[in-house]
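Reading a protein record of the kind used here takes only a little practice. Think of the row as the fold of the chain written in a discrete alphabet. A record is reproduced here so that you can trace the correspondence yourselves:
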Amino acid sequence: MDPGEDSSRFGSVPVTTSRNMSSSSSVFFSANQSPFFSPRTSTCQLSESTRSDAHCDNIHLSADPLSSSSGIPDPESIANVRFALSDISAVPATCTSSDFQKFDRVNSSIGISNSTMSSYSHVHDNGYSELREKHRKHGRSYGMSCTPVSVSLASNRLRSCDVFIGLHGRKPSLLRFANWLRAELEVQGMSCFVSDRARCRNSRKHGIVEKAMDVSSFGVVILTRKSFKNPYTIEELRFFSDKKNLVPIFFDLSPGDCLVRDIVEKRGELWEKHGGELWVFYGGLEREWKEAVNGLTRVDEWKLESQEGNWRDCILRAVTHLAKRLGRRSVVERLTKWRDKVEKEEFPFPRNENFIGRKKELSELEFILFGDVSGDAERDYFELKARPRRKNLTIGWSKSGLVDEKRRERQWESGSRKGKEPVVWKESEKEIEMQSTDVPQRLRPKGGGRYSRRKRSTKILYGKGIACVAGDSGIGKTELLLEFAYRFHQRYKMVLWVGGESRYIRQNYLNLWSSLEVDVGIENCSEKSRIKSFEEQEEAAINRVRKELMRNIPFLVIIDNLESEKDWWDHKLVMDLLPRFGGETHIIISTRLPRVMNLEPLKLSYLSGVEAMFLMQGGIKDYPIAEVDTLRVIEEKVGRLTLGLAIVGAILSELPINPSRLLDTINRMPLRDFSWSGSEAHSLRRNGFLVQLFEVCFSIFDHADGPRSLATRMVQASGWFAPAAIPISLLAFTAHRIPEKHKGTQLWRRLLCSLTCGFTSSYTKKSEADASSMLLRFNIARSSTRQGYIHFNELIKLYARKRAVNGAASAMVQAVISRGSITHYSEHIWAACFLLFGFGTDPKAVELKVSELLYLVKEVVLPLAIRTFITFSRCSAALELLRLCTNDLEAADNLLVTPVDKWLDKSLCWRPIQTNAQLNPSLWQDLALTRATVLETRAKLMLRGGQFDVGDDLIRKAVFIRTSICGEDHPDTIAARDTLSKLTRLLANVQIHTSP
């Protein structure tokens, strides 16, 4: 099959991005352009950044044991490399001694790649015979042994290899699968050698690959329909079959398809076009070819089929089996634990079995991310229009100059196709730039600011692994992303779901550490040589997560409901968190913003009339024409929002009511006068009918369960929780603490009495489970994959905050403080702190008594701040929390020592009592000591960030308080003085070194 036939009928999108593990690494070089790579260790790697002839001073060494290679390079990037293997002997003469010191520390087990210098040059099938003859003269054919002449550093050190991976073809999906398999094996500690030998141009390179085959413990051969006319694949099959270590992987094939008779006689749809006397391509050796193909049927232990929907399972099975055969029991145990964890934590919501429509959007998302569509989506896909060509496009920021015009012209002439344009991504330490090959355009930030925003958004980028879905609240963005994740999760190692709310996105991103198995703590992100600033420590933690996402192992990162392009805490761009685009990891962002990072989003529109009708009809499908017309009226009035349509369908399914009566009830429901503010309230401000629909639901709950319906109060409480899954027990506990609302709904309760006839008896005296079940059945809440948790849509929570009675926020804070676990409920504890301390410009929403404040600080604030600082390296958030806590403690202290007028104005000694501190001295002492503890904690954290002067001031206050109350000889006072001595010494050293 010709290479062009591998592409989709919509045209191929060139993948030209080399993998870059970290934009800040100065010694990194992608092994896409090197003939050597090591799975667990670093190697001397060759680079060419331009199309000019490469020189040895481009050679760098990587000290990262897991970022050494990219296995299978991209065709266009490899076309730029002009090194020959014979040039490698010059490497030691030009590499620096420090680099070789790094190199000497690596493990001696080094694998070699498939001489990728020429592995993807254009070699056609009709040239295999000539290449094979050259190969026979200089190397060895099957059945012959010959030691290849090699002066290269890596080949001299090649002693053994765990797995040899052979493949043939340039189909993007095949390369993606092989890259993933190689990277997964390397992460698990198995050395790999990847080769497409049909791309090797000389016998010397063939000799290196053959030596790797000889020393490999197992030979994995990825079989496609093109493999059977590739002489090298047939040779690999025979070679590894005789060694009894063949591991075939049938890619888009099955073992039943690989029968000699069917191939030769062109039987079946698969071989009608691609079958025949394929041994001709093998050099005319029919018997050897048939023996190799028949040998696949005798490999009973390995039946690995890689189809469109089981990539992850196939790779996991392959790695597990290879680990067992190699005696790596720890790898098998680790993979088993990981599989169990993924089954529980991969998705935040269960799959919506009633998901309808969105075929076009799902297909377009697939095309945006992969640059191709497959399967049933290909039939439903739409015709793409040619985009206007652009010359230079910057996403985020850029400080580089314009690329040479001649280089762009060469790229256009060599790589462009009709209606498409080649795209090259560059990345330096402070630059992420996409170059396109058309009309020049330099995008300069307005006003010269580093993070200035462009006026116009760019076109959608196809095949770059980044997609943005935009739409109003409640239109179904999360449902679309969830369905996409469930449909395509097998193409990724794991789906990583990140809440995009601005106050929580950084913590949600760092929470990925457990899934990625990296440590983002302070101890692991700091250098012993010097003390890093707080900003550097936070950057180090984020970069550790970024780095894991920038390997060749594909992940799907979904950022749901992104509120802002900048982080709420330090106003840095959200793009700083994300891995670079164009890699194996894909990113989908859902947002209400018109654009994100200057990318044109996929704007989510309303469901079609048929789909909306199906969603509203619920379980009843035979409404008369008049009722169908009423449903269409309801659809328009609810703003055609998917959330509103789903609630209408749930009411019609749960209650004995027809659409006309429901419409009349909604219209008669009084519309409360709320003052909506903020962009998030836009949907509710313009859609009063949706607000009335919410009121109908709450009235139904109140009528079914009495005036203090637990379901209604749970909704009211939900508005103050964080935008994350809420434990049902904690939500119900909060609901019980909400004060009873004012009476005055008797009229509407009587109005709904006839509407809910027969409904009351089955909904009396509800428990927590019954109340949550009611919320789920009416689509007010949605279930979570975590047992005992539920989610609420942001529109529901926004309306709940407006509708809630006084005391709901206080009830939430008290419930979280008394029952919240810092490990499991950290998001909701942060939400309570936002209400208590008034972060930023937000006012305080809840006031606590002094005794409650002391309990909060000791049991919640201090553990939360220390965990946030140490475990997640979120220094600024932890320090801000402690600063605001100190301010509240000082305010409480001032209140206690302020003179008050009491009816008992004399003590037992007939002395006048002037302050509350004198009335309750134990409370005042406890408050003072707690304040000293917070000050000492802040000082110790300042010590970790190098802010010795601030820490010195804080610890002196703590020492004064402890000395005044506890005395100089108390252990706490002595410990505080030790901290003071350390800070004073470090501060003096800094002043000595900085003084002129």
